[in-house]
Amino acid sequence: MELTENKELLEQYRERAKKLVEQMSLEEKVFQTLYNAPAVERLGVKAYNWWNEALHGVARAGVATVFPQAIGLAATFDEDLVEEVADAISTEARGKFNLQQAKEDTDIYKGLTFWSPNVNIFRDPRWGRGHETFGEDPYLTSRMGVRFIRGLQGHDEKYLKAAACAKHLAVHSGPEAIRHSFDAVVSKQDLYETYLAAFKACIQEGHVEAVMGAYNRLNGVPCCANEELVEKIVRDEFGFEGHMVSDCGAVQDIRDGHHVAATFKEAAAMAMKNGCDLNCGKMFYFLKQAAEDGLVSEERISEAVERLFTTRIKLGVLDRKEENPYDRIPYSVVDSEPMRKLNEEAAARCVVLLKNDGLLPLELSSIQTIGVIGPNADSRRALAGNYEGTASHYWTVLEGIQDYVGDRARVMYSEGCHLYKDRTTGLAYANDRLSEVKGVCENSDVVVVCLGLDASIEGEEGDANNEYGSGDKPDLNLPGIQQQILEAAYASGKPVILVLLSGSALAVDWAQEHVPAILQGWYPGACGGKAIAKILFGERCPEGKLPVTFYHKDEKLPDFTDYSMKGRTYRYMKGEALYPFGYGLSYTRFAYENVRIEKPSEDGEDGRFVTARALVRNVGTAAGAETVQVYVKIPGEDTPNAQLKGLRKVRLEPGEAREVEIALPKEAFGLYDEDGRFGICEGNALVYVGGHGPDARSAALTGQEVCCLEVAVGE
Question: Given 83, 137, 266, 458, which residue is catalytic?
Answer without folding.
Answer: 458
